[in-house]
Amino acid sequence: MASSVHHLLFIINLLIIPTTLLSQSIIQMPPRRHRITDDNLYCDSWRFSVETNDAGTWTSIPSRCVAFVQDYMTGDRYLSDSAAVANYSLSFARGFRSEEMVRTLGSSTSMRLCSPICPTIRRMDSGLNSYGHRSVTFDEASFDEWVDLAEAPALPASLKLYKELKHLGFKIFLLTGRSEHQRNATAKNLLYAGYNNWERLLLRGPSDQGTTATVYKSEKRSDLINEGYRIHGSSGDQWSDLLGFAVAQRSFKLPNPMYYIA
Ligand SMILES: *[C@@H]1O[C@H](CO)[C@@H](O)[C@H](O)[C@H]1NC(C)=O
Ligand SMILES: *[C@@H]1O[C@H](CO)[C@@H](O)[C@H](O)[C@H]1NC(C)=O
Questions:
Q1: What is the Cα–Cα distance from 214 to 241, expressed in whole angstroms?
Q2: Does residue 56 belong to any structural domain of this protein?
Q3: N or C: which terminus of the chain has fewer CB atoms within 10 Å of its end residue's CB?
Q4: In 3-state terms, what secondary structure has residue 204?
């Protein structure tokens, strides 16, 4: 019988490892316990927690992990982790039969190509745009100068994935939290880094100001679905790229232990 009170529900998915596996060499148990005070051990656990989003919103790298994160980002590990994620994205993408691709792409040919960028551009043209300022903790002026430089290199794994997806016939939408007034610099930077022929570059227009990244990106995905697209895959270095509503069939989280955008 239905109760009038709400039951608190929390699903715990069990991880069950057969004991036979434990006795096999597949899972190597550590020969001895590391001390929990070991910074590397602590920071690796911290990194795991932020990447899985178990940590939720976090605002700064623990001071004892700054050097760890620097090593991670500048060493082979970051490139390898990114490549692993890109490889899984690609395996998933390759799973679509070619006839399904054609049907999917075919259904998008009668789309309103204007939406959702055109209304934004019209507002810009008529001079009505007023860009709200995001509240960010980093120095926005110098960040904007960096954006204007348009010389950020591509993450090799992402560029490779992009090219392979193009080759497979996917339409690729680039969705960014950058403002519409950074469109030219962003497009220039993408071309400089080796990206080209994207389907659409989606930026935060004046009407998108004041929403969280999760809501903004969900709304943009929702717009695409309303246009008739099916979003097969989504890839991003932030959970706010992937969560919310109108989510992709599969989401692929790239590593980023440097900052968290809610
Ligand atoms: C990714 O795939 C490439 C090509 O198949 C392979 O050479 C590379 O080892 C893979 N990298 C990772 C980290 O899985
Ligand atoms: C962007 O580039 C286009 C074409 O080069 C130009 O017409 C337009 O004024 C530029 N917009 C901004 C905001 O700089």
A1: 6
A2: no
A3: N
A4: strand
Which residues lie below 8 Å from residue 106, measured CB to CB, with a gap of 6+? Answer: none
Q: Does residue 30 fall inside a structural domain?
A: no
Axis crossing angle, helix 183-193 with helix 140-149, rounded to the nearest 10: 50
Total-model pTM: 0.75
Residue 186 lies in a domain: yes
Which range of residues forms the domain containing residue 125?
84-253
Q: Which of 124, 179, 184 to mutate to test the pocket of ligand 2 (most atoms within 8 A of CB)?
A: 184
DSSP-assigned states of every residue in 113-166: SSTTHHHHHHHHHTT---PPPP--SS-HHHHHHHHHHT-PPPPHHHHHHHHHHH
Number of domains in the chain: 1
pLDDT tens-place string over residues 141-187 = 666 677 777 878 888 899 999 999 999 989 999 999 989 999 999 99
Ligand 2 pocket at CB < 6 A:
181, 184
Q: What is the pLDDT of residues 177-210, one digit of tens each?
A: 989 999 999 999 899 999 999 999 999 999 999 9
Judged by DSSP in three states, 251 sits in strand
CA-to-CA distance for 9 and 94, rounded, in angstroms? 37
How many CB atoms are located within 10 Å of the residue 190 CB? 20
* Structural domain contains residue 2: no
User: Which of the listed residues 77, 79, 81, 87 should we mutate to test ligand 1's pocket, taking the one with most ligand atoms within 8 A of CB?
Assistant: 87
The upper half-sphere exposure of residue 202, i.e. CA atoms within 13 Å in the direction of its Cβ, equals 22
How many other C-beta atoms can be found within 10 angstroms of the C-beta atom of residue 20?
8
CATH number for the domain including 174? 3.40.50.1000
